[in-house]
Amino acid sequence: MTIPASEMEGHAVPPLGESEEGVAGKVAGRSPTQLAMARFRADKLSMISFYVSCFVVFAAVASPILVKIGVFDPDGLNQDKLNTDLGGIPHGAFGGVSWSHPLGLTPGNGEDLLSRLSFSMTYSLGIALTGTLITVLIGVVLGIISGFSGGFVDATVGRFIDLTLSFPQTMMLLALAAPTVLLIRKDVSELPLLGFLENPDLANGLFVVIILSAFGWPPVARVVRGQVLSIREREFIEAAKLIGASRKRLYFKEVLPNVWAPILVYTTLLIPAYISAEAAFSFLGVGIKPPTPTLGNILRDSVSWTTADPTYFFLPGIVLALTVVAFNLVGDGARDALDPKTHR
Amino acid sequence: MTDMHSNDGPYLSVEDLVVHFPTADGIVKATDGLSFTLGRGKTIGVVGESGSGKSVSSSAILGLHRGSSAQVSGRIVLGGTDLLMLSDEEMRLRRGKEVSMIFQDPLSAMHPYYTVGNQIAEAYLVHNDVSKKAARARTLEMLERVGIPQPDRRIDDYPHQFSGGMRQRAMIAMGLINDPGLIIADEPTTALDVTVQAQILDLLQDLQREFNSAIIIITHDLGVVAEMADDVLVMYAGRAVEYGPTKDVLTHPQMPYTWGLLSSVPDVQGDTNAALIPIPGNPPSLLNPPTGCAFHPRCVHRSKVPADLCTTTLPELLPGSQGPGHTKRCHLADPDELYRTEILPEIMPDLIVED
Amino acid sequence: MAISKKPFAALAVAALATTLVACGGSDGDNGGGSKSEGTAGGNAIFYNGVRNTEHWDPQRMYIGRDLNNSGRLFYRSLVAYPASNDPVKGTTPIPDLATDTGTSEEAGKVWKFTVRDDVKWEDGKAITCEDFAYGASRNFATDVIIGGPANYLFTYLDIPTGKDGLPEYKGPFKKTGQDLFDKAVSCDGNTITYKMKKPWPDFPQSIASLRYLDPYRADLDKGDASNFQIISNGPYKLDGKWTEGTGGKFVRNTNWDAKTDTIRKALPDTWQFKEGDTEETIYEQFLAKTGDANFGVTERRMPPTFYSRIAEAGKLYTKVESPFVDYVLPNFNSPVFKDIKCREALKFATDKTAWINAGGGERAFTPAYSAVNPSVPGYEKNAAFGDIPDNGDIEQAKAALAECSAPKPVKIKFTYSGGTPTSDKQASALKAAWDKAGFKTELDPLADTYYSVIQKPDADFDVTWGGWGADWPSIGTVIPPLFDSRINITPSSNGNDYGNYKGGPEVDAMIDAAYAETDLTKAASLWAGVDAKLGEDVAYIPLEITIFNFLHGSKITGYSNNVSTNGYADLATIGVTK
Amino acid sequence: MVAYIIRRLIAGVVLLVVMSIVTFALFFASPIDPAQFACGKNCSPAMKAQTAASMGYDDNFFAQWGKFAKGVFVGRDFPDDPKLKITAPETIAHCAAPCLGYSKERTSTVTDLIKQTMPVSLSIAVVAFAFWIIGGVLLGVIAALKRGTLIDRGLVGLSLVLYAFPTFFIGLLLLKFVAIQWNWVPVPEYTPIAEGGITGWLSSLLLPAITLAVFFMAGYVRMTRAFVLESLSEDYVRTARAKGLPKRTVTFKHALRAALTPIVTMAGLDFAGLMGGAIITESVFNYPGLGKLAVAANTDFDLPTLVGLVILLASFVIIANIIVDVLYAVIDPRVRLS
Description:
The complex is a heterotetramer of chains A (344), B (355), C (578) and D (338). Chain A is mainly alpha-helical. Chain A is built from twelve helices and two strands; from the N terminus they run ααββαααααααααα. Chain A has a two-stranded antiparallel sheet. In chain A, helix 2 (44-68) packs across helix 4 (113-149), helix 7 (200-232) packs antiparallel against helix 10 and helix 10 (260-283) runs parallel beside helix 11. In chain C, helix 10 (352-358) runs antiparallel to helix 13 and helix 17 (504-516) runs antiparallel to helix 18 (520-537). Chain C has two domains: 53-272, D-Maltodextrin-Binding Protein, domain 2; 323-547, Roll (Dipeptide-binding Protein, domain 3), CATH 3.10.105.10. Chain C is an alpha+beta fold. In chain C, strand 4 and strand 5 (110-114) form a beta hairpin. The radius of gyration of chain C is 23 Å and the shape is globular. Chain D is mainly α and 338 residues long. Chain D contains 14 helices and four strands. Chain D has helices at residues 2-29, 34-39, 45-55, 61-74, 82-87, 110-145, 150-164, 167-181, 193-232, 235-242, 247-275, 279-285, 290-299, 303-331; strands at 76-78, 93-95, 102-103, 108-109. In chain D, the strands form two sheets. Chain D has a two-stranded antiparallel ribbon. Chain D has a two-stranded antiparallel sheet with strand order 3-4. Chains A and D meet through helix 5, helix 6, helix 10 and helix 12 of A and helix 1, helix 7, helix 8, helix 9 and helix 11 of D.
């Protein structure tokens, strides 16, 4: 979230020291992973938020199908159910709540809010997840490589990080949005296999993903690099070197498994950050546009209906908050579970 | 006043000390019913693998678990007062003054942001109402005493600018600056190389003589014990498994775990065909320790005990053949015989001869 | 609508509506506005809102709001419109800096005006005929004086045109071809003479409606740097400097003599112009009736989100029909819509009602049946659209689509000026209707890039959106600017003819005939003929006429949405109470 | 030390050069024609060509960048047209060094625009910074010290929820209710110290600063908490307690000092980022700062302004980085600058 240039910076994940022989470390018999799992399960809050997140993910996956089979109708008009004299706010209490429209209708076009919110997860989460994956991928690869090979490579990556971090993210986002999306839709979509990028939704979505990952990877790279440095000298790496393992093998077979914990935590915390980032971007008019729903563009419309249609104003905000909080708590839970030292 | 202590009863007596940590994974029984006594000017060595509860017990004596989730019970009587009965504040006032601790790995044990002198003086200032200047003078004196060259120049250095040995000396200076009655040295030499080890140990002994203080030295190195300690306490899975005068325990160990420890010490002046017999298996889980004798899963002599007592019943800590002063926690009928006939030839062939 | 849209859309300028229908009725509608007479003194505020003023340079201004406001507060020209809501009076020029409304010779090919000798600039210097000539000449500096309506002068003023399509006179800075200009525009004492290539009967109205022939001070002209410089000759002058994005403060101009000015009441002591507030902020403040907003007036239309609170506003609420028309344009270059049948299918399928509802309902728009606003003289309901139901005619649409040559389902791409929640809603409403008729519509909302995209002749949209208002009450300022391919379509741009409509010799002839007609009423009917032809070709599909819904501060007096200011608040008469 | 700083500065300058090139390349590649925007709608190809020329967009990439770079050191003229210099010199806008370009849309040099908007953004940044550092760090420490208690959970929970709502959402609510409807504070309108005095200035910044602070505070509470917890479990803290130091001394002198060091870094960089203008907050409250300028410049593709801003903001970050590193060395004796 930070969107922000460094408006996102504020939410870097605290560094994770690997758990040394703390009290729990003494416990033999179960593998660290099993222990972490056990700890995570033991934490009610984490579990609840985990279920919530699962539900969100489910909604994201299920909605497109539900739309296909006609259960959901995110952009179907019900203008007959609106009071067109009052600027098109729904007839009936609570923004036109009814059996057919459990969360009411959107003002203006009278689309079904439930459908829209649910379907918006598909896009918002889609963006957040793809963004996170790419971010983490870049971060991990560069982090491992620079941490492992050190020297010139390390320095270069370092400079590269500096360069990336000194770009004002939100400004670049604004300034590049229109041209880049045009570029994607006109030229990139000409390339073989990329024809689908002509679609404005995909193009806009892709742009958001690009921005998020282009500016998001440095912290990941740093965390990973730190981890790599700390394990680089460990015996098993030496051993692997001795038996003449290839670089690639070293990096990804030997090193990667030993830095997964921080990566996992970082990932789980990036997702919610990116979800609210998408919302913030929408406010600036960047990202997927209606009628295709995203949490961001729904919220952007709903905020102006504070008084006229309170239901429509509150629901999207609450849904967004709930989602973000849930994912964050899962992330925290994961960190606490994996690193008892910072345990509650 | 010191005399008074040495006359009636021991200076420190720990009775049935229990330290339990409730964790997300269950209760960790770090120390379970530990008892021992220690007189002024005497040294006790507490031996055991890491995680056997050595450090935990000693920090319990310092009251470092106060304010944490740890559950501490039993009695820790120091100079006539039960430390566990004291209020946090009273305990704090004793900490560093009557009891002080010398930690292992002084690099992490010293604050990286403050100068060595500053940190030592701090320990003096908190317990003595004196000027900063006086404290600094005292600090210099202590640094001098622990053998830091040109203390007046090093006093304003930061810990990371000291060598390992120097840091350990500084730690000792910090621990002794209020000449406490009881010093707990937690693995004071593990981080150091052999020659420095010797120096530090000598230093400790000199200081002990000077201040007539009692020392608890925690280590997994029987060599250190042999050199320093009057008594030795072997701990396993949070319990004392053997306890007695050092010489006695080292020459006539009564407990297979102690044998294991002995056998895993490379004998410095010993001959080369001395076999190193490591103890098989891992330290037990303190969450759910093995039934009966906690050592049984790793004990090769289990078979020699009838009706697998080892697995079912926890042996008492009782005097063995070596008289009341030397207690052990083991079901074996005649450990001496077993040790002489089976173990000794293995680990110290040369000792057989003189027998 | 166009006005409040993104950059270039705003260039469409308000018409002088001959009738601004004051929709009377319930919830405090009172057309003209609070008629109570104001007293002098106090400080008034004008909220420019999120659309910053782009130019205060008279020759560069082309936005209705700024033309009106500057004309009422600090810029005067030869002639101007009186502050009146009377359909005729409000749109008939009266002398302002000139002694009369101009005399034409050679059937409108030569125009003469005499400048008053008792009028001064804010620095006390007298306003001379040369100042007017210089002002006119600035329009030709096409590399510096950008954005204004100079095209009219290029079309009419008697200055030869070079190969590049630009006049051979390059303006007062480069001075290339200065003699050409001096021949066309000349001063004789206080009398200025404009010589035209062809008759220009409504020339005075163009002067009163736009500011491109305002006088300008050669000695203070810094070209581009003068963009926000205001050399006042009206009742107020800029105090300090204008800050783009924040605004500026106007105080009384002591060198303005009320006796020379019958139009401007100039009641408040100061006028504060504020830029950057959103409609929500402005209207919430009006409704809260607290703070400075009580002394505020705005040009921003009330967002639909506030319609449910109009009762709260009471007398502060006004509602008038605007001189703007919105429409969609089929792209004649698109494979689908080069076929008339497909265009007709789209025409029948278009659901005005859905579009209107999505945009705020009948309070926000009223259906349109021509690209020409009913307020423009000579307006006729375009037969091609008149008798289609407002919510479209699915049956005819399907029928027409069946004959449409394009492969079924007919995939079309609707590129529109999005970026605001409302515009997005309206687009999806339109899409729904078209899809019902059998089209398969892809929505392509563009924000800032909208015009730069659709103006490319090779742009790949099938339908696009457009909005326009006449520059002055003549269809001649609606149809040619929008559909005359000769002045619009160049290799690099289609100008305002986004649909790339080419009427061919037939239509071109009709347009020229209408232009040539010097009798304005005859001309009007000729124009109507052209519009009918456009309807037959489905060159455009009219959507609606914007209705202005305004609130103003509770301490504002003399508020009135005059026809003379295109239905916006007429700052000439506004005052504030303590 | 000095040598280090100098070396870093040089590196920073190099970085800036690279940045400016990258930025130029990005915008140069953009399919949107800035001249078209500047020229307006009824703009014939010829007129557009003239506009492009007067804005220098007709040059090739390197020429454009070269002129820009040259302008930074010696300044430049707009339009740079020798003929005009003779016939109408008064119409040529001179942009004195360091010239970041000239905005035709705003008819002002970018440097002037920045001079104009910078104070606003800086003000918001400073006040918000104060709020969130004091608030965030304080609450974070409290949470850590009261770990596990209701207070702790409450604080962490609250920060999470606040963090979950986007800035614009919170900002709009504050503006609509706190300022306009309940009228607790006047509708925010930036007042420079010169006009309103410290109090006027501060009160005019209240809502925007809070909006911004809330966002960062949420992050800082959690970060601080984590760092403090970590350092509380450090060996040297145990040593301090073993010395018999009072809790207060242990916590504040020993634990916090170490814990807050990383926060300093974070805060420094975040602040630098903010000086570049909080785009969303400024738009919500209509504050004429760098952020708002960026938005405006973006709506009409005012390239000179955009490029100028990017470079400016980048230099903030770069300088902040240097300061933070130096600061770090001052705080942590182990860090040696070289």
